[in-house]
Amino acid sequence: MSNTEQTLSIIKPDAVERNLVEKIKNIFVKNNLNIKDSKKLHLTKDEAAEFYKVHQSKPFYNDLCTYLSSGPIVVMILEGENAVMSYRKLMGATNPKDAEENTIRKLYGISIDKNSVHGSDSLDNASKEIRFFFKN
Ligand code: CDP
Ligand code: MG
Q1: pLDDT digit string (tens) for 8-48?
Q2: Ligand 1 centre distance from Cα of residue 2 (Å)
Q3: Ligand 1 atom 19: the closest Cα is on which residue?
Q4: Predicted TM-score of the model (pTM)
Q5: Which CATH class is domain 4-133?
Q6: Is 118 a catalytic residue?
Q7: CB 3.0–4.6 Å: which of 1, 11, 36, 83 could bond 5 by disulfide?
Q8: Of these residues, 118, 126, 129, 133, which one is catalytic?
Q9: Concatenated DSSP letters for 35-79?
Q10: What is the band of 99 on the pLDDT scale with cuts at 50, 70, 90?
């Protein structure tokens, strides 16, 4: 039975800066994650803080928000079979050092904070995060 889902991807400032957007988009498409919408933007620190609100009690929250707002990002809606979990798997572990071979974070991540990509962690958060960036 098919289970088409949508999830939110962010190409973070470290990857945009290193001109990895087209390479990462090609990986998505090759892995049957179709790009339904895409835009480049630069968040303010307040907007980054709103986006990452679930992490507000974490020690890394402030640095995380400073980082996400430090330069342009590319946000995308990805659609495909089991897109939420299939994209999480393709992305790899949060810390690139722990990520499996051929995952995006293993290929391109620099460190736990500069780990190149974000992906929604559940279907519920995917729809919230898509609404955050693609309100109509
Ligand atoms: O992005 P992911 O869902 O894999 O990880 P998370 O636990 O939701 O954390 C969000 C982001 O915070 C990560 O992608 C890291 O960039 C950052 N982070 C960090 O800087 N230091 C940590 N110890 C954990 C996460
Ligand atoms: Mg997360």
Answers
A1: 999 999 999 999 999 999 999 999 999 999 999 999 999 99
A2: 30
A3: 113
A4: 0.98
A5: alpha beta
A6: yes
A7: 83
A8: 118
A9: EEEEEEE---HHHHHHHTGGGTTSTTHHHHHHHHTSS-EEEEEEE
A10: very high
